[in-house]
Amino acid sequence: MSGAAAALLVLADGRFPAGGHAHSGGAEAAVKAGRVKDAASLGAFCRGRLHTAGLTAAALAAAAAAGHDPLALDEAADARTPSPALRRTARKLGRQMMRAARATWPCPELDALAAARPRGAHQPIVLGLAARSAGLTPLDAAHACAYENISGPATAAVRLLSLDPFDATAVLARLAPEADDVARRAVEAAEGDLADLPAASAPLLDITAEAHATWPVRLFAS
Amino acid sequence: MTTVLGAGTPAPARPAPPPMPAPAAAVAPRVAVTPVAAVAPAAAAGPAGVRAHVRITAASDGRGGTALPLLSGEGPFAPRRTRSADPARARVTLVGAMSAPLGGDRLTVETRVEAGAALRLDSSAAMIALPGRVPGHAEYGVRLTVGEDAYAHWLPEPLISARGSDLRQHLVVDLAPTARLVLRDEQVLGRTGEEPGRLSTRLTVRVAGRPLLDQQLDYGPGAPGWDGGAVLGAGHRAVGQLLVVDPAFAERPAEPRMLGETAAVTPLAGQGLLVTAVAPDALQLRRLLDQSHIFTSW
Predict the structure, then answer these.
(1) Average pLDDT for residues B270-283, to the nearest whole number?
(2) What are residue B159's phi and psi, to 5 degrees?
(3) Beta strand segments in B224-281, E
(4) Which residues of A touch B233 (CB under 8 A)?
């Protein structure tokens, strides 16, 4: 009995105390701009996010879970995150994930990364190391990361738009096969040369994250 | 129509590309569109598309100026030394000599700016990715190496992805720690009123071998979610980036700021800043990038 399947559920659970609930993954800015206004546009938003930022994050998580140098991955994550607002968010979420992971699945690798990056490493890398420490595979880490990448905006949209939670969950269910595909591609990439890790990006997410960070009043931190 | 070709290279002639639905000239006026189609009489193109390699080397001439010891081109590109506003810098203009890239083409531009040299590269017209008679995608690779205390301005006209085309572009830039760079990269998704083809473009920039910026953009049929609210948003058919790398940013990073609703100036984690913009068309995109007023003292 390895307990790995349940460990994956713990890691991917929205109630895992890593602070993700305070972030909308760009959905708040997209709602304000009128780009996300109903279940259909939420679906298009999540789909684009999954195949860009989601793929990139899942590959970083898979590479960390596979045992690649987390500091080299952290540098690769910086290069893939031109927006300083998104770098701050990724490190803040990484710091919170680190606290939760060290309490849940303590291991020397997590301790070493926490010591090297006291202000937080990029969240997908911490997630990948946490998965590794929990006895999970790179594919598990990629799945958790890809899923979180779309579940965050979908949950946020329920609050931002008073969207029917059933509709928001249906968006996630419809994207499930693509999330599986993204996780699989992330793992394939993590098995290759680190320089070739996916760098898929979404220009609007980068641009609107900067605008969102300057709002005086907002519901979500990002 | 005159044909300009690289030093003595025979023209790899091929038939004209298939007719396209929209007039190319309907693109924004600042963007001169001249795919000099099928200049040579129709000798058959190779079954695998065109293979072409451009090589440019800029080196200090020892008298405060820049020489071009290597300037060779073939096929679609003719690199020409053009008049530079600043005599201390060399200027090279890529002149389109035939319609490219088409499906199956493999085009490479390899540029070295050696220590202490200064090069400005531009192009005479937008590059239009078109479908070819050869099945399969086209590849366009740019390799730019900039040495110590050297300057590179990489300012080509936009890349236009026409309906039915399939292009993979990869720009790889390697900078020495004291190298300075201004690089503009613009993509226009379809000519006016036209759906885009498939376009994948990656920009990889390293300083002293360490990653500074790595971004891949995927658009068009087969790129999931590219026109949704996360990637481009409705009505945006042009996307571009302006990258400035300068060792001075290591001490004093740029301040992030917005340029309207659809463009942002962002300091990178390393010694660079990036302007990212999306816009309805090429003209408005260029206005946004110009509006960033990223003036360098060099």
Answers:
(1) 97
(2) -100, 130
(3) 238-245, 257-258, 263-267, 272-279
(4) 33, 35, 204
Letter string b/e over residues B89-110, b meaning 16 or more CB atoms within 10 A of that residue's CB: bbbbbbbbbbbbbbbbbbbbbb
Which stretch of A114-123, A213-222, B63-72, B93-102 has the lowest confidence by average pLDDT?
B93-102
Whether chain B has a CB inside 8 Å of the CB on A3: the answer is: no
Q: 3-class SS at A18?
A: coil
Quick one: residue A25, left, alpha or beta (phi over 0 = left, psi -120 to 50 = alpha)?
left
- C-beta separation of B54 from B6 below 8 A: yes
The CA-atom distances, in angstroms, between B243 and each of A32, A177, B155, B161 are 28, 36, 11, 22
Amino acid identity, residue B297? S
Q: Please tell me which residue of chain A has the smallest CA distance to B268.
A: A82
CB neighbour class for A71 (10 Å; exposed up to 12, middle 13-18, buried from 19): middle
How many other C-beta atoms lie within 10 A of the C-beta of residue B116? 17
Q: Work out whether strand B180-189 and strand B198-207 pair parallel, antiparallel, or are unpaired.
A: unpaired
Residue-level pLDDT at B77: 87
In this predicted structure, what is the pLDDT of residue B161?
Answer: 97
What type of residue is B22? A
Among A214, A213, A218, CA closest to A89: A213
The mean pLDDT of chain A is 96
CA distance A30 to chain B (A): 7
Give the type of residue at A157.
Answer: A
Inter-chain Cβ pairs, chain A and chain B, closer than 8 A: 135
Task: Give the pLDDT confidence of A2-19 residue by residue, as tens digits.
Answer: 788 899 999 998 889 888
Burial class, A162, CB count within 10 angstroms (exposed 0-12 / middle 13-18 / buried 19+)? exposed
* All domains of chain A in start order, with CATH: 26-213 (1.10.4190.10)
pTM of the model as a whole: 0.90
Residues of A in contact with B218 (CB under 8 A): 51-52, 200
- Tell me what pLDDT residue B25 has: 36
Distance CA A13, CA A10 (A): 5
Tell which residue, A8, A208, A19, has the closest CA to residue B230: A208
The alpha carbon of A202 is separated from its chain's Cα centroid by a whole number of angstroms, namely 14
Residues of A (5-34) whose Cβ lies below 8 Å from B: 26, 30, 33
Task: Quick: pLDDT tens for A143-194.
Answer: 999 999 999 999 999 999 999 999 999 999 999 999 999 999 999 999 999 9
Higher-pLDDT residue of B216, B39? B216
| ipTM, 2 dp | 0.96
